[in-house]
Write a structure and sequence with these properties.
Layout lengths: L4 E6 L3 H12 L4 E5 L13 E3 L3 H10 L4 H8 E7 L9 E6 L1 H14 L3 E5 L2 E7 L2 E7 L4 E9 L8 E4 L2 E3 L10 H9 L5 E7 L2 E3 L9 E3 L22 E5 L2 H9 L5 H4 L13 H7 L7 E6 L6 E5 L7 H8 L10 E3 L2 E7 L17 E3 L9 H19 L13 H11 L24 H11 L5 H23 L1 E3 L15 E3 H5 L6 H4 L14 H12 L1 H18 L17 H10 L4 H5 L6 H13 L1 H5 L1
Parallel strand pairs: 1-2, 1-9, 2-6, 9-20
Antiparallel strand pairs: 3-5, 4-5, 7-8, 8-9, 10-11, 10-19, 12-19, 13-17, 13-18, 14-15, 15-16, 16-17, 21-22
């Protein structure tokens, strides 16, 4: 049979463009179905990429040849590094985007990929044959055949917008929702749930008194996501910090019942870590004020995003409340804030490669799996695209585990836990976070990029040199010594020594690369002038003991992960296994003993019983 496409991607958001791009670069013909080809990867909410935990995903996406890091480096208007006063495991990068330029960058990038065809349509029905996906029927009645489908529907799947009592069937303000696609998933037997997210009103920056707000400048040198960004110098745009007031609290509290979040109009669960302003004043009634970050939406617009003021209150109440915020006393709203409910498919219905268990060749990525955030969506889109190609080529799935990537942490969380609220990634979710830092994403991901030919050889060779140069730098730091008289207060800790190695100096509490650089001039120029090489060497030295300890923990973890379980394994006959455990194992279908141990509600005793049974019946199970 001749198919129109190898892969069809439904949805042109952050997940969809990554899935389409990687499928095409791996040699497959991709059809990207989206309602508006001019709005690919349009930022519906916060115009920023990165932040705590999320930036680790962006670094991993970039190291796997993905699009997001390149797009934000080319269009960012402010770059900042967060958490630098803490350890490197939680160092994170956050970039304020030019919202329109980011969108334009992605649109032009996708246009240039010869293996991608963008189809302006609304997907209506999934077509299957003998339990496998074989095509998509659009709402206009066009039949598009394919060998795999990746659904990246964002908030458009059954989308319903709320502004006060007003309800609008839409996935984004002014754009249609996909209701027939929800019906098609239901007909195929998928369980659907409802989640909620929201966005603040947009403000006219010309009507803001920024003198009353606290300036938040960008960092220099600019901390780009990609390592080969050659963007010309540019002036970063400032953000500002301000606060709600007692009057804001009084107005919002008075109108709780006018918000669909409290009136009963919305019953679905919203993101815990990004609550609406109504939620904030209700849940934290003892708190008199809340921070708001005033973030520009780009260089070519005066529109401001008030991060922290997400709301679904009636528009007139939004206007009244926000004018009580410091510096916003005369502000004008250009677009109202709103809440949006949408359908998702609880992620126990997908495998760790993001393929659905019910329909072969059908993959889910992004908010359909219960996640929230551009970065989470992009990461899933990339992984789903790679795995869709591997499915077509009858190759082993690409599955990252929790010890090697935040991509692995996120997908494992989704497939082993019951997602009942929008999932957001944090560094605290990763138990091996010292081993999977921002700075070593390429160390962890480049071997896979090599395997799938996702990064060009020049980059890979340059990185190999970087690794070798880092090793040389570590040797120099270990072998070169400096007199303690040159170390100021730190030198007083070594009263019985005349000198110490630079390695010993770096290991001292409070000493950073910034402290080390001025001392290097005392030596004969052997040290690299590349800041990245020095930082990599310093992290390796400073945290060597902790990293070694974590590696021992990872080795134990790997043993559990390597004890595989057949996909169609029958748990019903295991003597001594509780009925609840049998039901959960049957529902989630873990691929390893390690994954089985992380399923919500499973006890160490359940895992022990399963482990004993697997070892006892190893020969018959694997046949």
């Amino acid at each position: 049979m001749n198919y129109d496409f190898d892969v069809i991607i439904i949805g042109g958001g952050h997940a969809g463009v990554e899935a389409a791009d990687v499928s095409a670069r791996m040699g497959k013909k991709a059809g990207l179905i989206t309602m508006d080809a001019s709005k690919l990867a349009l930022m519906s909410c916060n115009p920023a990429i990165g932040g705590i935990g999320k930036s680790h995903l962006v670094k991993e996406i970039d190291a796997l040849g993905g699009l997001m890091g390149k797009a934000i480096d080319a269009t960012g208007i402010q770059f900042r590094r967060l958490n630098l006063s803490r350890g490197p495991a939680v160092w994170s990068t956050r970039v304020q985007a030019d919202r329109i330029k980011y969108n334009d960058y992605v649109v032009n990038y996708i246009k240039e990929q010869h293996n991608i065809e963008v189809i302006e349509a609304l997907a209506g029905k999934l077509l299957t044959e003998n339990g496998s996906i074989c095509g998509v029927l659009t709402e206009n009645g066009d039949k598009i055949t394919c060998r795999t489908v990746i659904i990246c529907s964002g908030t458009f799947l059954g989308g319903l917008i709320h502004i006060g009592p007003t309800k609008i069937k839409a996935g984004r303000l002014g754009e249609n929702a996909a209701y027939k696609l929800s019906d098609s998933l239901d007909e195929l037997g998928f369980e659907l749930g409802r989640l909620k997210t929201g966005t603040p009103p947009r403000l006219n920056g010309d009507t803001i008194d920024f003198d009353k707000c606290e300036l938040q400048p960008g960092d220099t040198p600019i901390p780009y996501y990609t390592n080969d960004c050659n963007r010309p110098d540019f002036k970063q745009m400032p953000c500002y910090l301000t606060y709600t007031t007692a009057e804001t609290k009084a107005i919002v509290s008075k109108h709780f019942n006018d918000s669909p979040i409290f009136s009963g109009q919305i019953n679905s669960t919203g993101p815990r870590y990004c609550p609406s302003i109504e939620d904030k004043f209700y849940r934290f009634a003892d708190k008199e004020r809340h921070q708001l970050f005033l973030e520009p939406e780009g260089n070519g617009t005066n529109e401001i995003y008030p991060n922290g003021f997400s709301t679904a209150l009636p528009e007139e109440i939004q206007h009244k409340a926000i004018r009580t915020v410091e510096g916003l006393e005369k502000v004008e709203i250009t677009k109202p804030g709103y809440a949006v409910e949408y359908d998702y498919c609880p992620a126990y219905q997908i495998k760790p490669n993001l393929e659905t268990k019910r329909v072969s060749g059908l993959f889910f990525a992004g908010q359909i799996n219960g996640t929230s955030g551009y970065e989470e969506a992009a990461g899933q889109g990339l992984m789903a695209g790679i795995n869709a190609v591997l499915y077509l080529e009858k190759e082993k799935p690409f599955i990252l585990d929790r010890s090697e990537a935040y991509l692995g942490v996120m997908i494992d969380d989704l497939t082993t836990r019951s997602t009942t609220e929008p999932y957001r990634l944090f560094t605290s979710r990763a138990e091996y976070r010292l081993a999977i830092r921002e700075d070593n994403a390429r160390d962890r991901m480049y071997r896979y990029a090599r395997r799938f030919n996702l990064v060009d050889e020049a980059k890979l060779d340059a990185f190999d040199k970087l690794v070798a140069d880092t090793s040389t730098e570590i040797g120099l730091l270990k072998s070169n010594r400096i007199h303690i008289s040159q170390l100021g207060e730190v030198g007083e800790r070594f009263k019985r020594k005349d000198s110490i190695s630079l390695e010993e100096y770096l290991k001292q509490p409070g000493v950073t690369v910034h402290d080390l650089i001025p001392l290097l001039g005392n030596f004969n120029g052997d040290f690299s002038d590349n800041r990245e090489i020095l930082e990599r060497a310093a992290i390796d030295i400073k945290y060597a003991g902790y990293i070694e300890k974590q590696q021992r923990e990872i080795n134990k973890f790997k043993k559990m992960e390597n004890e595989s379980i057949p996909e169609q394994f029958d748990y019903t006959d295991i003597t001594g296994l509780k009925n609840e455990a049998k039901e959960k194992f049957t529902r989630f279908r873990p691929i390893s003993l390690g994954q089985a141990s992380r399923i919500e509600g499973i006890t160490p005793g359940d895992v022990a019983v399963l482990s004993i049974y697997l070892k006892k019946h190893k020969d018959t199970i694997t046949k």
